[in-house]
Amino acid sequence: GPGQRPAGRGVALPAGPDLRHFLRAAAAGQPGSSPELPPEAGSTPGAPKVYLETYGCQMNVNDTEIAWAILQKNGYARTKELDEADVVLLVTCSVREKAEQAIWNRLQHLRALKARRPQARAPLRIGILGCMAERLKEEILHREKLVDVVAGPDAYRDLPRLLAVAESGQQAANVLLSLDETYADILPVQTSAGGTTAFVSIMRGCDNMCSYCIVPFTRGRERSRPIASILQEVRMLSDQGVKEVTLLGQNVNSFRDLSEVQFKSVAAPGLSRGFSTVYKAKQGGLRFAHLLDQVSRIDPEMRIRFTSPHPKDFPDEASVLQLIQERHNICKQLHLPAQSGSTRVLEAMRRGYTREAYLELVHHVRDSIPGVSLSSDFIAGFCGETEEDHQQTVSLLREVRYNVGFLFAYSMRQKTRAHHRLQDDVPADVKKRRLEQLIATFREEAARANAALVGQAQLVLVEGPSKRSASELCGRNDGNIKVIFPDAELEDAAECGAPGRAQPGDYVMVKVTSASSQTLRGVPLCRTTLSRAAASH
């Protein structure tokens, strides 16, 4: 494949995203730096202090937790204050040019910080981790002499050694991609605010090779984490009081755990009708439906979500859809990344489906899971996209009416098939106009979809105070739509106990009074539980 280098254990290659800056990821341009941190467990006085900053998708938030778990075991302390840090690590994103530019800009700021550091203190060490490290190792080391450590997504175990090399004044790098690294034995140290929701990585890499996508080259081949280690992590989160877990992978419904020998020869599932794939069907292993079934049984009061699936991997037997419909704690919400509404563009993107096949899947999903909430990703201005192709995407947005959308202008990435074979021929101003039209269309339709919920009672998992008003609380409904409601004394539906205010991690029944394209507002009715709400539904 293009850009291959013989690597130690395995050679890096194929994949495809669809995780597209999903959910509450640190927005590409803003440092999603260290949130509230627990007191340092077992860190010794005088331990080197590390400051971690996360850019890009939720995968990177998870990777930050893994890197920190490894460093913590090796005697590092963590700090929220940049000025206190001995080591600054940026977990980076390469999905678009803008995401990489944010890192180059941040490095200029760190250059000044490094220069200002008092002589009496050990020199500040700076590390670039993740996808940009993988994609641009040489350029980072040569262009920015201030970078001491470069570590790709499969090299986090090597961080203590790399930092030790950096201590001696040399630059240190490891961007080997692996065929089997899943960090299965490393329990990430959760740092998300409030501890109500958590993300659990179930696989790494991707084999889809969509023509626009850099992920195969930055995150390597697809490999799944053993189910036993995923269940262990979810149980631990349940014990800590976490109320919502999102299973995370670049392509979750091609998950297959091959670690248990007796399941190695199970037949590969068929693709959905009208879908094709560029890679050979994978034999054997325990599939995603089995994992989802097991995870949903751990805690009846814990909501389960997952992202991102690939439309082509919803098998006809629909066991995943059936589980979503049957289990009260699996959210009735699906991310179905379309990318375009034009069959011609979808073919150029190597997505493996036509517009018609995608729409058939949407109807099948809506028939199987009444009331399902749908989200999607779209790219405006891909190579060769005509005005007619663009209008087909506009009409797809109208026809499907998504509740949540992630829309971006196309950004050509080196190494991808599009870079080798296609022309990035849609002018920047045309991309911008098309993107604005897609966003406007999405918002109109989402506002209509959300307006249909006015007057209904929605079960909301409370995440904390609203950002805009301390007198209001904010949470999400089953469909992953933000719901804001007044913080008031509430009866508890489950007990005859005294009324009380809802806390983060509580479930509250809220009657929706108004809606926009982004949020629902309502009045709280009572505190309740997930099981009780499901039983009374």
TrEMBL record:
Residues 451-526 form the TRAM domain. Residues 48-168 form the MTTase N-terminal domain. GO terms for cellular component: cytosol; mitochondrion. Residues 192-448 form the Radical SAM core domain. Keywords: 4Fe-4S, Iron, Iron-sulfur, Metal-binding, S-adenosyl-L-methionine. The keyword Iron-sulfur applies. It comes from the Eukaryota. One of its GO terms (molecular function) is 4 iron, 4 sulfur cluster binding. The keyword Iron-sulfur applies. Belongs to the methylthiotransferase family. MiaB subfamily. This is Mitochondrial tRNA methylthiotransferase CDK5RAP1. The lineage of its organism: Eukaryota, Metazoa, Chordata, Craniata, Vertebrata. The gene is Cdk5rap1.
